């Protein structure tokens, strides 16, 4: 059914409305908002089929990583899964599909082709790229939508809840992420009139949403991502804050919606009211400090929840049509506040391509940036017209307000090229200046579109109704650039560089090679100034930074900083600088070192509030408490009438009765060894003859793939050692070492005999050292009589470990990278509020 909407057309002959200081006159005109089928019928008739890629268009400059990502995720494939288009053909496919939207406003085929060429040149230059769904789906005719982020309403009824789950599945299947505000749901234990029962509360239903996500893959390639939010004044807020600490709800980011009343109570160390959403009655009070401390403690342990200052959001440009609101949630990474059934088309300008040399040195190419902003705003508005939104409610909402989100990437690269340290006032000031420029030019471009096409239909109900009409209700968002930053060969979003260089190992039956990936701007600077070398590249790849690398001039050590070298307060200052002139919000991760305290999290949250941020996400490296390994055993004995034991059974976690019985007390050592996936603590407990009896391995953040694989290695090694065998126990242990030694992973650390190729290889080295002959042990003086000849291996504790082994938090020696669930490489990092793989480009964003 067509939906009637009001637009405006500039007409100087006719007056209907005059505004102070402006002589432009407007006349109301009726226009029917067509559904997607009608729009595409018109597009097909007037724009026609996509022509072949014109010969006169430039060829793209693609990095090796970009080509790998494009082949695996973006380039069109035939029925057999073989790639059937080049990167340039992909860009042309997208450019023509989006330019075709202009036939709705009178363009003919010739005009569409000329505009498509303009869009092509913009994208192939890597100065601008739309979000991944647009690159993946535009022009393919696969029916999958072009937007990345959506918010769905969750009503306080069983039908409403399961409708939202159904809609979530549809969006995830089409390649989008979803945000949910669960604040309308009545609290646990509340009376339900229809069933005469009691409600189970928001968290219980979040688990159902989470399970549904687990079963649906986006466009057949990956699982979807979710954001779950709950108001701080909801009675179930405590359960919500801690809901991820036990490892559940794995497909959600969560954030607390902090109200102004809550923040005021926090400042005054007072109480605030809890309100039942279904009755609007005050049902209790909480001390704000206690809730805030719980938020900070949970975030310190697991990275969740974040905080969103919801009253600030609703009073901002992110809520452009208050009659549709209020805002109840954001997209999964937190930068895009949206109404229910709202979506946003996102795109990013990569700033590294807007640095130019001038008479006074390098500076920002403001003219080039202005041109890119105007083109990008037009591109994103065109996307709205031809986007096959997955739900009719989303189609209607988006076209009423035409929200777009133009952001940036390559910020860290730009700072490198300009010689400005990321954590400097000069950088904060430049960020604010650039975003103000992009915002001003972006809104001017939207005003120009409104003159030609009319403003967004609900403009007369918007916060802009007293000013110049805009085509788009919001214009700017700083979103995660995720995979598209790899395609653009640029740094991610407004984040600092995570690592300046790292190793990537390719090893199979046909090839065995190790590649070093280097930040291209770092290499450019080093080569230009004459201090770059292959040896230097290898050194930087060891740690990922240049902090202690000789050969890098002091001047550049101060400039070439990575995320873990930047103070949390400076991370927040950078986010705040970008936020001041952004309509929506800013996706940024406040990276904290592993040794950070809960108070550091609290300070970051409070600073974000005081500096005007809309929300904040923190990630403490290796976060979540180290778990106690409960390795005790329970023994049941049966005796005869004389008290003699006739049967003995031992029950130990993960054991079966046939295994060698674990004594109640074992003696062992804990070793520390550097591995490609982080510093590992390996516990080796021995029997009374000194033979290895069991092994425990700890590395990385609890709940990650690295930790799971480490525990698996320990369990399987222990199982092998305890299975009864005719072979001596030491021979079994040596066989285990032989199987694990030399296994290669994505990276290695160390050199020569001390080289560790993988976590498994590191465990093998520990076992080998543990079993050195006694005479050699005494000569070498290893801890507890065991040798420690590897420079990467240290015995950090020894003696009677008893029934419980507890390990301390690992020190931060280098940034930790998790294993990518798609390519298996240890290059998955947390930045921009989500995970991203530097090898294959996998991203939840």
TrEMBL record:
Domain TSCPD: 662-771
Domain Ribonucleotide reductase large subunit C-terminal: start-end pairs: 147-619
Matching Pfam families: Ribonuc_red_lgC (PF02867), Ribonuc_red_lgN (PF00317), TSCPD (PF12637)
Catalytic activity as recorded in UniProt: a 2'-deoxyribonucleoside 5'-diphosphate + [thioredoxin]-disulfide + H2O = a ribonucleoside 5'-diphosphate + [thioredoxin]-dithiol
Keywords: Cobalamin, Cobalt, Deoxyribonucleotide synthesis, Disulfide bond, DNA synthesis, Nucleotide-binding, Oxidoreductase
GO molecular function: ATP binding; cobalamin binding; ribonucleoside-diphosphate reductase activity, thioredoxin disulfide as acceptor
InterPro entries named among the record's database cross-references: RdRp_reductase_class-2 (IPR050862), RNR_lg_C (IPR000788), RNR_lsu_N (IPR013509), RNR_NrdJ/NrdZ (IPR013344), RNR_R1-su_N (IPR008926), TSCPD_dom (IPR024434)
Domain Ribonucleotide reductase large subunit N-terminal: 63-143
Domain of life, source organism: Bacteria
Annotated GO biological process: deoxyribonucleotide biosynthetic process; DNA biosynthetic process
Broad class of enzyme this protein falls into: oxidoreductase
EC number: 1.17.4.1
Cofactors that this protein relies on: adenosylcob(III)alamin
Function: Catalyzes the reduction of ribonucleotides to deoxyribonucleotides. May function to provide a pool of deoxyribonucleotide precursors for DNA repair during oxygen limitation and/or for immediate growth after restoration of oxygen.
PANTHER family, sorted: RIBONUCLEOSIDE-DIPHOSPHATE REDUCTASE, VITAMIN B12-DEPENDENT RIBONUCLEOTIDE REDUCTASE
Family the UniProt entry places it in: Belongs to the ribonucleoside diphosphate reductase class-2 family.
Listed NCBIfam families: NrdJ_Z, PRK08665.1
This protein's name: Vitamin B12-dependent ribonucleotide reductase
Annotated source species: Candidatus Chazhemtobacterium aquaticus
Organism ancestry: Bacteria, Candidatus Chazhemtobacteraceae, Candidatus Chazhemtobacterium
């Amino acid at each position: 059914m067509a939906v009637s909407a009001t637009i405006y057309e500039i007409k100087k002959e006719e007056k209907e409305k005059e505004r102070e200081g402006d002589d432009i006159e407007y006349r109301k005109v009726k226009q029917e908002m067509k559904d997607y089928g009608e729009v595409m019928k018109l597009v097909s008739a007037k724009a026609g089929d996509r022509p072949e890629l014109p010969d006169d268009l430039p060829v793209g400059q693609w990095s090796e990583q970009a080509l790998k990502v494009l082949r695996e995720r973006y380039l069109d494939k035939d029925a057999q899964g073989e790639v059937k288009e080049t990167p340039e053909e992909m860009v042309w496919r997208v450019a023509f599909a989006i330019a075709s939207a202009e036939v709705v406003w009178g363009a003919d085929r010739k005009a569409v082709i000329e505009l498509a060429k303009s869009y092509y040149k913009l994208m192939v230059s890597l100065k601008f790229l739309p979000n991944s769904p647009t690159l993946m789906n535009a022009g393919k005719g696969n029916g999958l939508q072009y937007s990345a982020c959506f918010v769905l309403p969750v009503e306080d009824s069983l039908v409403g809840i399961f409708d939202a789950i159904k809609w979530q599945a549809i969006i995830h299947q089409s390649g989008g992420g979803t945000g949910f505000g669960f604040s309308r749901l009545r609290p646990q234990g509340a009376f339900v009139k229809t069933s005469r029962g009691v409600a189970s509360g928001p968290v219980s239903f979040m688990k159902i949403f989470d399970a549904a996500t687990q079963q649906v893959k986006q466009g057949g390639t990956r699982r979807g991502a979710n954001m779950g939010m709950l108001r701080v004044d909801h009675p179930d807020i405590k359960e919500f804050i801690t809901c991820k600490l036990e490892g559940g709800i794995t497909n959600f980011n969560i954030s607390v919606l902090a109200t102004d009343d809550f923040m005021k109570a926090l400042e005054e160390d007072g109480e605030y009211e809890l309100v039942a959403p279904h009755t609007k009655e005050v049902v209790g009070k909480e001390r704000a400090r206690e809730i805030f401390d719980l938020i900070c403690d949970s975030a310190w342990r697991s990275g969740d929840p974040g905080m969103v200052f919801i009253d600030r959001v609703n009073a901002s440009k992110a809520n452009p049509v208050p009659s549709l609101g209020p805002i109840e949630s954001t997209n999964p990474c937190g930068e895009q506040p949206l109404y229910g059934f709202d979506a946003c088309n996102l795109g990013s300008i990569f700033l590294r391509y807007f640095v130019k040399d001038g008479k006074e040195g390098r500076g920002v190419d403001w003219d080039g940036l202005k041109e890119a902003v105007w083109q990008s705003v037009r591109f994103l508005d065109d996307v709205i017209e031809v986007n096959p939104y997955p739900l009719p409610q989303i189609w209607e909402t988006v076209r009423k307000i035409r929200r777009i989100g133009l952001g940036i990437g390559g910020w860290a690269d730009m700072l490198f090229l300009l010689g400005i340290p990321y954590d400097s006032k000069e950088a904060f000031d430049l960020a604010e200046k650039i975003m103000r420029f992009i915002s001003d030019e972006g809104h001017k471009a939207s005003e120009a579109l409104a003159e030609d096409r009319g403003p967004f239909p609900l403009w007369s109900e918007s916060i802009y109704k007293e000013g110049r009409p805009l085509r788009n209700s919001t214009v700017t968002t700083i979103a995660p650039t995720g995979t598209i930053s790899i395609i653009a060969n640029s740094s991610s979003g407004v984040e600092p560089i995570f690592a300046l260089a790292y190793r990537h190992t390719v090893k199979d039956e046909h090839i065995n090679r190790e590649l070093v990936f280097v930040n291209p701007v770092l290499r450019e600077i080093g080569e230009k100034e004459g201090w770059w070398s292959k040896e230097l590249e290898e050194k930087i790849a060891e740690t990922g930074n240049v902090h202690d690398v000789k050969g890098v001039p002091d001047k550049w050590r101060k400039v070439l900083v990575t995320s873990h070298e930047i103070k949390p307060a400076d991370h927040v200052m950078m986010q705040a600088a970008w936020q001041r002139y952004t309509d929506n919000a800013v996706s940024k991760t406040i990276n904290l070192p592993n040794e950070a305290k809960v108070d550091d999290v609290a300070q970051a949250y409070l600073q974000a509030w005081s500096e005007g941020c809309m929300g904040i996400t923190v990630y403490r490296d290796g976060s979540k408490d180290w778990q106690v390994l409960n390795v005790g055993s329970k023994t049941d004995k049966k005796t005869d009438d004389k008290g003699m034991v006739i049967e003995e059974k031992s029950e130990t976690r993960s054991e079966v009765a046939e295994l060698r019985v674990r004594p109640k007390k074992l003696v062992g050592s804990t070793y520390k060894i550097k591995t490609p996936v982080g510093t590992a603590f390996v516990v080796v407990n021995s029997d009374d003859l000194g033979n290895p009896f069991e092994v425990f391995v700890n590395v990385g953040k609890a709940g990650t793939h690295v930790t799971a694989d480490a525990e698996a290695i320990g369990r399987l090694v222990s199982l092998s050692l305890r299975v009864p065998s005719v072979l001596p126990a030491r021979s079994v242990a040596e066989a285990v070492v032989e199987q694990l030694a030399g296994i290669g992973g994505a990276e290695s650390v160390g050199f020569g005999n001390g080289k560790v190729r993988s976590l498994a290889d590191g465990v093998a080295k520990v076992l080998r050292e543990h079993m050195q002959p006694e005479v050699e042990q005494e000569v070498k003086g290893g801890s507890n009589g065991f040798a420690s000849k590897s420079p990467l291996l240290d015995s950090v504790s020894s003696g009677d470990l008893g029934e419980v082994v507890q390990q301390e938090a690992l020190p931060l020696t280098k940034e930790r990278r998790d294993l990518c669930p798609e390519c298996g490489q240890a290059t998955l990092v947390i930045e921009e509020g989500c995970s991203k793989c530097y090898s294959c480009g996998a991203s939840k964003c």
